[in-house]
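Reading a protein record of the kind used here takes only a little practice. These numbers are not coordinates but entries in a learned vocabulary of local backbone shapes. Here is one such record, which you should read through line by line.
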Amino acid sequence: QVQLVESGGGLVQAGGSLRLSCEASGRTFSTYWMGWFRQAPGKEREFVARISRSGSSTYYTDSVKGRFTISRDNAKNTVYLQMNSLKPEDTAVYYCACRGAAGGEYDYWGQGTQVTVSS
């Protein structure tokens, strides 16, 4: 069992930055692929970014490429999402998740953190 706790959300003006953190419980954090997802009001949850176990491989959805950066610190059991040049359309609840394999469904999810970008 893995527990994920997100933090760092808040209200920011368009063009601003936020850094989300997601801390995982347990001693097996480095064995999990980690991902960030988001869900805007009235919309389905969508993939944002993912990172490999070692952090050497990352992947982003097109709408955030060049603005968001996913990273991880396995010594701190934490994955981050640095969000720059934020836009109102980035407003959503952001969730982190983990899975044991490179592909397939994510096994564990956090409770989410709200990000609101004002215009």
Observations:
- DSSP finds no helices and eleven strands in the chain.
- Residues 94 and 105 are 17 Å apart (CA to CA).
- The chain has a mean pLDDT of 96.
- The first strand starts at residue 4 and ends at 7.
